[in-house]
Description:
Layout: E1 6-11, H1 17-29, E2 33-38, H2 48-55, H3 66-71, H4 74-79, E3 83-89, H5 91-99, H6 105-112, E4 117-121, H7 125-129, H8 131-142, E5 146-147, E6 151-154, E7 160-164, H9 168-178, E8 192-197, E9 202-203, E10 209-210, H10 217-228, E11 232-237, E12 249-252, H11 256-266, E13 271-274, E14 281-283, E15 304-306, H12 310-315, E16 324-331, H13 335-346, E17 350-355, E18 367-368, E19 370-374, E20 377-380, E21 384-385, H14 386-401
Parallel strand pairs: 1-2, 1-3, 3-4, 4-5, 8-11, 8-13, 11-12, 13-16, 16-17
Antiparallel strand pairs: 6-7, 9-10, 14-15, 17-19, 18-21, 19-20
Helix pairs in contact: 1-2, 1-9, 5-8, 10-14
The structure holds cytidine-5'-triphosphate.
Amino acid sequence: MLAGKRILLIIGGGIAAYKTLLLIRELRSAGAALTPVLTQAGTQFVTPLSVAALAGEKPYQELFDLTDEAEMGHIELSRTADLVVVAPATADLMAKMAAGLADDLATTLLLATDKRVLLAPAMNVRMWQHPATRRNVAVLRDDGILFAGPDEGEMACGEFGPGRMAEPGTIMDAIRNALGQGAGTGPLAGRHVIVTSGPTHEPIDPVRYIANRSSGAQGTAIAAALRDLGARVSFITGPADVAPPVGVNVVAVQTAREMEQAVKAALPADVAVFAAAVADWRVKNAGAHKIKKDGTGNLPVLEFAENPDILAGIAGLTKERPALVVGFAAETDDVVANATRKRHRKGCDWIVANDVSPGTGIMGGDENAVVLITGEGTEEWPRMGKDEVARRLAARIAETLG
Ligand code: CTP
């Protein structure tokens, strides 16, 4: 089931590490390749030899191990895997991750990776319930980190409650889900969704461009929310302020025309959500050379050409039209009336309309107040965080697709 997949497995320092040896065996028999990493504390519980014997690969241990660095740098090491799994994830490791610390090999890999990270926490019940750990878990969940467990039960220390590391079988299920191979996991499992996000940059000359104030925050949150419901997400983004979510296929573009090509290349898809603030015009006479002041005081003249409307193009496809096409409408006046017209004009199924007038603080802010316009009518959502808007929209999409 996991043939061709590589798991970077970080073994933290906890008594539950003995169960990680069983996990390694399960991963190997499912066909996965392993890159084991053993923390200093981990070596107190399992030996490098037992890990190497079961994993079929010697565990990496030191950040500044010259031989390993010569073979493969830590950045590369953090990215060669399909998924990063931390088992056991100790309270200390999670606190470091939440704070972004990188003071050993494991934490450096966790900070440098561009892959999804799955934690199997294991700790004493008081440590798990401590407000500091609760805070750290909330931060990590917000960062898109996945969790398997912990279970409730009797612990090695004799106490009872949540904190026991999930069983290898449970962690295996979580690994399959994270790799998009879960059986019926999440309402959007098996679905492919395209999300466009961010602004586009339209060159004037090799050093100058025309852009807009989109931060990419709403599109990024939507991609993450769809991913969390099990969808395979193609995330096509212009140069945004916020980092793309982990666990999605990121296609970075600059211009509207590049974005259009990337969207077409990502088809077929079940759903397409067009959250990008695409520049309506590009500079027709953009040059290969920097425009210079020639000393005469003559001003350069820019000629414009209209960019393709990506949303309208995809909504109008006869072959390969996604079953659900969702557009956005950023309006400053008559939001609902303008957005309703836009829905018809562009031929999309839904429009997520918002008022981006100065003073609303929505453009570039953390919150959004949207109106969802569908074939059935208009729904006004209260002002809420962009993450919450994304979760609600993703849930509506899942519901509609059934
Ligand atoms: N859009 C697109 N390609 C474009 C322009 C817009 O895909 N070239 C998409 C946006 O991603 C968004 C929707 O169309 O989902 C609405 O974009 P908006 O800029 O609000 O509308 P415009 O088409 O620019 O209409 P107007 O200028 O009249 O507001």
